[in-house]
Amino acid sequence: MALSAVHVFDASSPWRLSDQVSLRDEAFGALAYHHGNRRLVFLKSPELVALVRSLEEFESADEAIDAAVASGQHQRYVQALSSLFNSEILCGR
Amino acid sequence: MGADFSLRNRFERGLAAPICLTWELTYACNLACTHCLSSSGRRDPMELSTKEAKDLIDEIAAMQIFYVNIGGGEPMIRRDFFELIEHAVNQKVGVKFSTNGTRIDEEAARRLAAIDYLDIQISIDGADAQTSDRIRGEGSYDQARRAMDNLQAANFGQFKISVVMTRESIEQLDEFEALAQHYGAELRLTRLRPSGRGVDVWESLHPTREQNRRLYRWLMERPNVLTGDSFFHLSALGDPLEGLNLCGAGRVVCLIDPVGEVYACPFVIHDEFKAGNVRDAGFAQVWTTSELFRSLREPGNPGACASCGSYDACRGGCMAAKFFTGLEMSDPDPECVFGHGEVALEKKRLTIRPTPSPDHSKRVAVAITSR
User: Is the Cβ–Cβ distance between B126 and B169 less than 8 Å?
Assistant: First the structure.
C-alpha cells in the first residue's frame, strides 16, 4: 500500500491492475470500469489490454512493455500506462 | 474523448454488450409527468417477476455490464426494489436509479446510504415548485426536495439532480447549479424528447434554437455537468461536448422495459424499435442476434445532412427525436442547430406522426397527495 501515495507513473516500478477495476474485452481493446470512482476508461488496442493484464508477472512496467511490443514503441506504451495510472486503473505493488 | 473519431466509429458498429443499459423496472408511477418517456402510470400485469428480474441481473453480471440505469415508472414502487438492487450490487453490477424521490423518507434514505455501488438521480423539472410542478404535478417539487434533504441527513454522499431541459427550465441553469452546490450534488441535464407522453408537449416545450445555443456554451464551460450524451446534436456548434457524441441506440445503449421487451434506446418505446424480449432466450441473445440491432450497427446514411459540413460533429442527431416528430432517419434532427430540422418538419407537417406503444398512462389525471 505504501506505493499508493505515489502520484507519478514510474515505469521502472512494478504495477498491476487495480482490484477495483473490471476489464471487458471488446474488438477495439477493452472497457475498464473503476467500481470506486465509477469511471469508464477505454483501452484502445488489444495489445494494450494484453500488456495491462501481464503487468503483474513482471518486476517493472518497462520489462512488461519490452516483452510485449517492439522497442520503437516503448515510449508510446509508457505514456498509455501512465494515462491509465492517472485514471486509477493501475496501482503499484 | 469527444474528438476521438476512430473509437466512435468502432462504437457505431456495436459492442459485445451495452455500455449503458437502461432498465425500466415498472410502468407504475405515483406521478404523471407530462413528458414521461415511457408513458408510465399503471403497472403492467405482465411485468417481470422477482425471480425473472434476478435472473436478468445475473445475466447482466455475466455479460460484464458494469452498471445498469434503473428507472420506470417509479422504480421504488416495486415491493422488491431493495431486494433487486441489493442483488445487483452484490455482484458488482452498479446501480444508477432515477426516482421522483417521493418514496425516499428518512428510513429509505438510511437504507440507500448503506448500499455501495449505488447512484441516485432525483428528477425535478424546475428550480422552483411552480415551474417544476407544472410538468411533474402539484407537490412533486417539495417531495423531491424532501428526498434530497433526507439523503443529505443520511450521509448518502453525492447524489445527482436530474433535469430535463425545457423552454422553461433552460432559463434556470444557474439556479440548478446553485441547488446542486447546496447539496454537494452533481447536476445532470438531459434533452427533452418527443417520446412517450412527450409527444404531446414537445412542440410547446422544446428549447428554441437560441436557448440551445446558450445551453451549449453553458455546458462547454462546465464539463462536470453530466448530460448522458444527450446533447450531441449541439456539438455541431463547435467543439464537441463531453461524451461519446453519437447515437448509441442498439450499439452501446438499449432499454429493457418492465415486461422484458428490449428496445434500441430509452427514447424509442415503439414496436418499430423493439428488438426482442428477455423472456424468450435471455438478454444476450437479443443484444447479439437482433436484426434490428444489426441494422442499427450498419454505417449510417447521412441523407439530407450529407452536404452539411457539421455531419461529423452531430451525426444527424437523435433517431428518437426524428422518429416521433414524423421525420425520416435520413432527415436532420428536428432541433438541428442550423434550423434544417425546422424546414424538414414544416414539409412533414401534414403527415401523421407515430404514437408511442405501449401507453401505460393513467386513464384519468390523479391528484398527488403527500404520504
Answer: yes
